[in-house]
Each structure stands twice: as C-alpha cells, then as structure tokens.
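=== RUN LOG ===
request id: a7f3
mode: sequence -> structure
chains: 1
length: 114
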Amino acid sequence: MKTGLWLLATAIVLGAFGAHGLQALVTPERLETWDTAVRYHAWISLFLLAIARTSFQTSDWVYRLVVLGLSVFSGSLYLLVLFDAPLLGAITPIGGILMIAGIVTAAITCRSLD
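=== RESULT ===
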C-alpha cells in the first residue's frame, strides 16, 4: 500500500512539474511524452493501491514486475524529455512489457482470502 501511495504522490508532483515547470523549456511533443509518463505512472500507482485494498492475495511478482515496469517505462520517458535523449525511447517498451506481465500475473495468481 505504501509503495502505491508514494508512487501516486510522485506522479502528482511530476505532473505538476510538467504542467508548470517544463512548459516553457520543451517542445509540445516532449511535453506530450512527459504527460504519457505521468499518466502511466498514476495508473500503475492506482493499480497497486487497488490490489492492496482487495480481499485477494497475489504473487509478490506482481509488485516486482509492475514497479520495475513503471520505473523503466516512465523513467525512460522522463529522462528522454529532461535530457532530450531520444535513444532512451528504445527501452520504454521493455517497461510496458513488464507492467503488462505484472498485471497478467495478478490475473493468473490472484485468489480470494475469503
């Protein structure tokens, strides 16, 4: 639960930074990339909060995969924008695959605690 809350707070801070701090510094295309990173950051944070609050138990791999996926996906996009390094976009899909793997793992391994 704590991880989801910290990640959500970070997503909000980074979203605000993108809206107010980056607008004059980067192109609209790069700002859109930043927004994509923030959007996935927030969605995965909410996913972690949701599964923490359900009556289901799931594999620890779910958390590992989605947090690693989020770090690679959104992290590479944040760095791409901040350093104008388009090559970082090449690793972004790896993060997406890890997030998907985590969510699929949740679907496969979840079982009711009732």
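=== NOTES ===
Residues 28-52 form the longest helix (25 residues).
The chain has a mean pLDDT of 94.
=== END ===
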